Amino acid sequence: MHKFSSCDGCQLAFLNLGESLLQLSEQVEILHFLEAGMSEADAQVDIAFVEGSLSTPDELERIQQVRKNSRFLVSIGACATSGGLQALRNLDGQHDEWRDAIYARPEFIETLQEVRPIASVVDVDLELWGCPVSSAQVVAAVRSLLFGVAPVDDRDRVCLECKRQQAVCVMVTEGKPCMGPVTRTGCGALCPRFGRDCYGCYGPAETAQSDTLARRFAGLGLMPDAIARRFLLINSQAPAFLQTGRVFWHSGQEAEDD
Ligand code: SF4
Ligand code: SF4
């Protein structure tokens, strides 16, 4: 388990497995997992899980080494698959402004101008989306890989899961700007089941109609910058969200300038 720029939340999805983690440790030998106390970063492995985005020159080098040492490389979570929150600095090339505003001594900070998802730099065998990933997804992926079966890549929309769970639609009944129609499931429609609108933390579903949903949000009364924030929050580097988010972000900026 390799950590790059991230909050460690997806590693906790492993640790939260509880009893399943004990069963898993009978099937595999865990060599490198700093949160759990194992440190063997350069070991040759069958499966490497990678959490976090590539945000520093050092990380760009380290991911190449991880790729060389691993038979399967699985990126886990929003940071690894689509940049995460830190990729917001990619918008309009704001790297230097943000670095200088945040750090007291910016001259000591070595970061890339743009945050990059793992698959933009090395080949990735499987991506597990989510912020954080769910423990069930992780177990299913490990089980498939151990038995030599191609893991299922669930790209259904959250809306479909809502129907399966018989959750009441918060967009239809309450006019909330729900991202469920364009977001892949994996969470079991967690937010709508508790009366909240989905904010897209599992990234784009297959053939996500982001522009259509953005127009629906405008119909609900959201201003362009609010629509942009729905698409650019956590998975901003996923193309299906980025293109729509950028258009509304720029039209919001132009409206402010006027
Ligand atoms: S609540 Fe959201 S995810 Fe559920 S059906 Fe309505 S729009 Fe789709
Ligand atoms: S409903 Fe949406 S925001 Fe909530 S956990 Fe699922 S994908 Fe994430």
Can you give a write-up of this model?
By secondary structure, this protein is α/β, with parallel strands linked by helices. It has 2 domains: 2-146, NADH:ubiquinone oxidoreductase-like, 20kDa subunit (Rossmann fold); 158-257, no CATH class. It contains 12 helices and 4 strands. A 4-stranded parallel β-sheet has the order 1-2-3-4. Helix 3 links the parallel strand 2 (45-51) and strand 3. Helix 10 (210-219) crosses helix 11 (224-232) and helix 11 runs antiparallel to helix 12. It is globular. The protein starts with a strand and ends with a helix. The mean pLDDT is 93. The structure holds iron/sulfur cluster (2 copies). Residues 7-144 form the NADH:ubiquinone oxidoreductase-like 20kDa subunit domain.
Low-confidence stretches: none
N-to-C terminal Cα separation, in Å?
49 Å
Report the strand count.
4
Give the class from helix and strand content and strand pairing: alpha/beta
What's the overall geometry?
Answer: globular
**Please, how many helices?**
12
- The ordered string of helix (H) and strand (E) elements is EHHEHEHHEHHHHHHH
Cofactors and ligands: iron/sulfur cluster
CATH fold naming of the largest domain: Rossmann fold
CATH class descriptor of the largest domain: Alpha Beta
Average pLDDT across residues? 93
With strands numbered from the N-terminus, the spatial order across the biggest sheet is 1-2-3-4
Question: What Rg do the Cα atoms give?
Answer: 19 Å
What descriptors fit this protein?
Rossmann fold; 258 residues; 4-stranded parallel sheet; 4 strands; globular; single chain; alpha/beta; 12 helices; binds iron/sulfur cluster; Hydrogenase_assoc-protein
